[in-house]
Amino acid sequence: MKHRKIEPSGFLSNFVKCFWYYETNNTEVQHTILPDGYFDLIAEFKKEILTTVKLTGIWTKPKDIQVSENTKFFAIRFKLPAIEYLFQKELKSILDTTVNLSFSFWNINKYKHDEFESFVSHTISQLETSLKYLHQIDNRKLKLFEIIYQQKTKTVSEISNEVIWNSRQINRYFQSHYGISLKEFINIVRCNATYPEISNGNLNPHSNYFDQAHFIKQIRKYTGVTPKELNKNKNDRFLQLSREVKI
To answer: Mind listing the domains of the chain with CATH numbers?
Structure first.
């Protein structure tokens, strides 16, 4: 198994977390995808042939997947504002599931299985051009997600005060576009922030949790297992806790 990621810079980083690549060898593998507060566009190549292009929703619970031998993924991990400004869609309808897209979406079918770097560079250029032609971007939303993803504040009321946006209006926005509440999204992002710590053996409560019991309860809620089981990560079951392998 090999995987890597490339992070964008500049204004695009408000919408894209990273581009990522994944490859299996001649062995089928099992993984569990954990909630992380992002959504993905994934192109799957099996035995060097493009077989699937799909968009995921937000995961609110762990998802078991089986990856065939000799499979490669080209993917983009998006921050939530991307669905509104780059896709002109909503994620509510595909919460905890996926939807297939055309192979020609964003010209993905033009890339071969070994052209990940080209896919990244060309897609970055395409997305940056698209953003230039947007008529208006609500800066409150960009600030809202910056605060949440960087965990600058802990509560809904604190976020509401920071972005000068009524908490009820924010929740309506989240429910209509993403199908979850702001509070649940904050909890998912908080949980995701603990994965690197847990992977490195830190099983003590994260600073944003009340105590050890609250920490374990929240981790179990969104991953299905305890922090100790996540740390063991047998057979790289939890891909988000696995070490990146350069290719």
So the answer is: 2-134 (2.60.120), 139-233 (1.10.10.60)
